[in-house]
TrEMBL record:
The encoding gene: secF
Domain called Protein export membrane protein SecD/SecF C-terminal: residue spans: 229-401, 524-716
Name of this protein: Multifunctional fusion protein
Domain of life of the source: Bacteria
InterPro entries reported in the protein's UniProt record: SecD, SecD/SecF_arch_bac, SecD/SecF_bac, SecD_SecF_C, SecD_SecF_C_bact, SecDF_P1_head, SecF_bac
Protein family membership: Belongs to the SecD/SecF family. SecD subfamily. Belongs to the SecD/SecF family. SecF subfamily.
Gene3D superfamilies: 3.30.1360.200, 3.30.70.3400, Multidrug efflux transporter AcrB transmembrane domain
Length: 720
């Protein structure tokens, strides 16, 4: 279909259909964005305490951590990315918090816990009932479809750890022709016949009638790979920490930010700005559907991923609009300017999206919980952006200009003459600015200290019985003022007794002295005459973000940075790719430090929001830098004799408008959300949006003033 009336109608009809799907969904299997699953902070959820069963000793710390990781993996598989899973080593139990399902109406925690599946122990037994292998020795179980002589068969592929591989080899060698039964506690779930001795720790269970049966068995095996059986000893509901209006406030703030961006884009770029707004709206709808349909939990890092992808969608349209302006400046026709504008913009858009997708892919492979949520949201955004931001946007604009009414220069912005700014010559000024920021940040670390949230440090928990009048926001403010420590406050209601408990968690696993507990209790009771808080128990919990998850998050960030260096090295070999990759990495490190200093100087505890902001700024900043590198590559191709200094100065000046406009559009989103959260005192959004604003600013600054000049300095040194 060629651009014109039919294509324009087709795109608008597709957009209307997406809107209808987003609002109404499609039956019970395809849920619209009104039926999204929201995090605990927004909608509340469930807390369950799991204790080992039939264990005549205290569970070891390693066993508790193994059980914790299995529960977290299970929740990842069910797209429950907003959760807190921790252990109490002293008491020997696991505490799990997770949000309600979308559409939940009876809010029964006992029913909700069933979503987590069976907490039974998996065992492999011989025909006499002797336990041969335990579930803890199973690494993974996955359903597979195989084809033999054109006939499909379904099986479950098993992978054992080193100990399990040896036990499985011995067991299969002794049971050839006999059955090896698989049990969940005392319930038989499968009983395959051993065909041959199996070595190497890899095996398959055959004989499933269809893929769903294989999937069901694999899920049961994965679910039962626990070091012991677990049973729920207590469960309760958790109130939302952000208040009932938090979601509505953020929705209204997002709508306001969208309209401000539209006004900016249309006012500055005219008709290309109109197409940008339409494609931005389409991107938002698809992005939300990608979360609501598989019922991914919408988390704070997920919101970060949405902001980044929407910022990159705006950036894609700004890059193409600037390129169209360049072509019109050269005297091209409107249609020719649009065609060549999108063609010339493609390389920088493609490279920017691929580098962000690299981060997303690594996070999805190694991440868990909120990091998996961020990676998924970002990956979907990059895929959609390449389709919507390039193909849909281009054909929408071409369809518009097929109409004579819009095929007029007054509907486009023609670039004015660009003045070349001597960025390279100002390199020492930039070095002083970055140096002052770094010194001030380091000084702030020593004077203010680095605060870690309970997600990283674990915490001391004070549990109170309270009346119905307890206001969590007022209590949190009062306790933080009294203790000068990061505090998390939640209301929990016991499902069995109906009694409400106030849970106050302090970062750090240090206990509380009797005098400190008394002062905190008095501070809570000063918030209202009717609170009547009485301390019932104190205990210490491990970090919500486990050591393995934290290592994986660090590994994911490290690998993402390494892959970006390699990608830039390969893609920008025409301008000495390795120096380009390393200098881009130095700029990213600069941005990461600025975000870190913002958290420290504003006294914001480091938590998963910090990781989310850092990842967002890495993706945002590298995209900014790649646009400049792309223009350097293009200018060098056009004039191979141009000096390194001129290349940097001219290329950075040519892309300066795009860099500033993209940063301004992204900053609008962040500022609107930040102002709304400050006005309505939504603390967790403030702690996310304030450092994000600094990150957006420094991302723009480092791309313009740091990366390019460092690359030029490197190249100049090579010439000597």
């Amino acid at each position: 279909m060629k651009p014109g009336k039919k294509m324009l109608t087709g795109i608008l009809v597709a957009l209307a259909a997406l809107c209808a799907l987003a609002v109404f969904g499609l039956g019970s299997d395809v849920k619209g964005i009104l039926d999204m699953r929201y995090g605990i902070d927004i909608r509340g959820g469930v807390e369950a305490i799991f204790e080992p069963q039939d264990l005549n000793r205290k569970p070891t710390e390693a066993e508790l951590q193994t059980a914790r990781e299995i529960i977290e993996t299970r929740m990842d598989n069910q797209n429950i990315s907003d959760r807190e899973v921790t252990v109490d080593k002293n008491a020997g139990y696991i505490i799990v918090q997770f949000p309600w399902k979308s559409g939940e109406t009876n809010f029964n925690p006992e029913d909700a816990i069933a979503e987590l599946g069976e907490m039974a122990e998996l065992t492999f037994r011989d025909p006499d009932g002797k336990v041969l292998i335990q579930g803890k020795n199973v690494k993974t179980a996955a359903p597979e479809t195989v084809t033999n002589n054109g006939i499909k068969a379904y099986e479950v592929a098993l992978s054992f750890d080193q100990e399990g591989a040896k036990l499985f080899e011995d067991a299969t060698g002794n049971l050839i022709g006999k059955r090896m039964s698989i049990y969940m506690d005392n319930d038989l779930i499968s009983s395959p016949t051993v065909q041959t001795k199996i070595s190497g720790g890899q095996a398959v269970i055959t004989g499933m009638k269809d893929y769903n049966e294989a999937k069901s068995l694999a899920e049961k095996i994965n679910a039962g790979a626990l070091p012991f059986s677990l049973a729920t000893s207590n469960f309760s509901t958790i109130s939302p920490a952000l208040g009932n209006n938090a979601l509505n406030i953020m929705i209204y703030a997002g709508i306001a930010a969208f309209f401000i961006i539209c006004v900016f884009m249309i006012g500055f770029y005219k008709l290309p700005g109109v197409t940008a707004c339409i494609t931005l709206f389409m991107q938002m709808i698809i992005q939300m559907l990608a979360i609501s349909i598989p019922q991914y939990t919408l988390t704070l890092p997920g919101i970060a991923g949405i902001i980044l992808t929407l910022g990159m969608t705006v950036d894609t349209n700004i890059i193409t609009s600037e390129r169209i302006s360049d072509e019109l400046k050269k005297g091209a026709s409107i249609k020719g300017a649009v065609t060549y504008g999108y063609k010339n913009a493609f390389s920088s858009v493609f490279d920017g999206n691929v580098t962000a997708a690299i981060i997303a892919a690594i996070l999805m492979a190694l991440g868990s919980g909120t990091m998996l949520s961020f990676g998924y949201t970002l990956m979907i955004g990059m895929i959609v952006n390449l389709f919507v931001g390039i193909w849909v946007s281009k054909h929408l604009l071409l369809s518009f200009i097929e109409n004579k009414k819009f095929n007029d220069m007054k509907h486009f912005r023609v670039r004015k003459d660009i003045k070349t700014i001597p960025f390279y010559q100002k390199k020492y000024i930039f070095a002083i600015i970055s140096g002052v920021i770094t010194i001030a940040g380091i000084a702030g670390c020593f004077t203010k200290g680095i605060a870690l949230d309970t997600q990283f440090t674990g915490g001391a928990v004070l549990s109170y019985s309270v009346s119905n009048e307890a206001d969590t926001e007022k209590i949190q403010a009062a306790v933080e003022k009294e203790t000068n420590r990061p505090v998390t406050v939640q209301i929990k209601e016991d499902n069995m007794t109906g009694l409400k408990r106030l849970s106050v968690t302090f970062a750090g696993n240090a206990g509380m002295s009797p005098d400190e507990q008394k002062a905190i209790t008095e501070a809570i009771n000063t918030t209202s005459d009717k609170v009547d808080a009485k301390l019932s128990e104190t205990y210490v919990v491990e970090p919500y973000i486990g050591a393995k998850a934290l290592r994986n998050a660090g590994l994911a960030i490290g690998l993402a940075l390494l892959f970006i260096i390699v990608y830039v090295w390969v893609r920008f070999s025409a301008i000495s790719g390795l120096p380009a990759g390393i200098t881009a990495m130095i700029a990213l490190f600069h941005d990461t430090m600025v975000v870190f200093f913002a958290f420290v100087l504003f006294g914001i505890p480091l938590n998963d929001a910090f990781v989310a902001v850092v990842l967002t700024i890495i993706g945002y900043s590298i995209n900014d830098t790649i646009v400049i590198y792309d223009r350097i590559r293009e200018n060098k191709k056009n004039d191979s004799k141009m000096s390194v200094v001129d290349l940097v100065n001219i290329s950075t000046s040519q892309t300066l408008g795009r860099s500033i406009n993209t940063s301004m559009a992204t900053a609008i989103c962040v500022v609107v959300i930040m102002v709304a959260s400050m006005y309505f005192q939504i603390e967790s959004i403030i702690e996310f949006s304030l450092p994000m604003l600094f990150g957006v600013i420094t991302g723009c600054y480092s791309s313009i003033c740091v990366a390019g000049t460092l690359w030029a300095m490197w190249e100049k040194k090579k010439e000597k």
